[in-house]
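Subject: for your reference before the review

Hello V.,

The reviewers asked for a structural picture of the protein, and I figured it would be easier to keep everything in one thread rather than splitting it across files. Below is the amino acid sequence we used in the manuscript, unchanged from the supplementary table.
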Amino acid sequence: MGSLCGFFVKTVTIDKDENTYKTTSEVPNPGIKIRKAKAEELDRVADLLYEGYKKRLPFFADEGKQEFFTDMVKNCFQSNPKLIENVLVAIDDSKIQGLCSMKFTNEECKSSTNSKKCEESFKGSSCKGLMKTIFSFGMNQYLSKVGNDEAFIEAISVDPECKKESEIKNLLLQAAGDECQDRKCKKISSIVMFKDFENRRFFENYGYTTAKMHLARPIFMYGDKGCYKMEKEVFQYC
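And here is what came back from the structure prediction:
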């Protein structure tokens, strides 16, 4: 479905803003460890991804749809065991408190869901809410395509009960840049919804600039009118 979404979005290229505010490269670390996720941690990874997407799409807020979403995520990762290597997790007090999910290729995962469970999960849902969910995920897939030597941040999510959200998000974004250096990427990018001012400022604080605007009807954009593509060049050490 992702390829069809190109007919429903208008993309505007934005001149690079050289005055974008940048923080220092070093982020204070209050005892938090960042590492790659492991296969046996998939349940926790799925739960945190749910928390990340729930903020964009309240349609998934109730418990029945959470189970459907997390099952879909786990099926996706299990279809390609190497995908878990693209997830960075933040450990604090011996618990995964946050994650950064990244994408380095356009290889799509194959997720299979039980049709009966799917029917039960969306039973009673409004047609508009269901269509917005389907179209928004399709558009997200289309806009997250990566070019050669490019990485894409799909989601940065922190446990809502964690009291170190700011520190963890900062460390995860810095670690994402380090991972891109290790993989010899030249650019890293992400998309931020128009209404998410806080997240846009978060990326700008680490040197990301607004490269493009993607405009579409709200049904394709999680109820918003569009999103920004934030990107940053990755410096490679000799």
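For the response letter, the relevant points are probably these. Residues 2-233 form a domain with the Aminopeptidase fold (CATH 3.40.630.30). The mean pLDDT is 85.

Happy to draft the paragraph if you're swamped.

O.
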